[in-house]
Amino acid sequence: MKRLALRLGGALALSLAACHPAPPKGPAVRPPDFLRGYVGQQRVLRFQADRTRLVVRRKDPAQLPGACDAAVDVRSARLEKGSPFLVLETLGTPGVERARSRCKTVPATITLNLTGFGADTPAQVTARLDQLLPTPDGYLRAYGVAFDLPPAGEPAVAASNETTAPDEERRLGRRVTSWPRKLFWVDPIYRDPRHIVRHEGEVEFEAVVGADGRVYRPRIVTSLEKEHVSAIQRVLPMWRFEPARAGKDAVPARLASRLVFRIY
Q1: Residue 196: what pLDDT?
Q2: What is the domain partition of the chain in residue ranges?
């Protein structure tokens, strides 16, 4: 009887295993290569950033109706039923000299879904994504401002006209013929987790603008809470400047500037 029971038990186990095969082993499913590069990038969602869910069809025009743009961090990207699906965390509202984003409200999280692109190549899909979700440089190009300076890294020395600056920086400052000019900026948003504080005001900061037109070593001058400082410092790498010039040469320079900070 014991042998019979063992045989029956083994047969039953084999039968159950056949009905419910073990899950395949291997790494977790990742987004395809052409989407993976977007994750972790800071970009600008154009036109309809006041919506929590944005669905863009292939037949939609290149410029969607709407004038609400938002700086975002791409939290995730995947294919959902063959269509790109991105989750975006909003960081603030962008600005350029020729335009301002006009938003009544900006949700904390936005989903962006492209549909009808299944027959297109990855290059065609990313071209549409980059149009809807450009980098700061791409956003400037959309407004006719050419910015093609590649990142050069944090400079060791920066021109300064402050009397308390090191001699080397003041010597470089005397050669400067034009100081940095703001081209693209982001006014940051902070969402109060307690939903108590609502505030909008200007914040002063100091930084170095590299010869590549990017912000380095920012320091918030206005007295703020730590989480507010973090929200502001998070968007400053997106800013773009026409760098300082010593004649025709671009040079790093120290900068004092302001931004609008909003707490919701």
Answers
A1: 84
A2: 33-142, 167-263
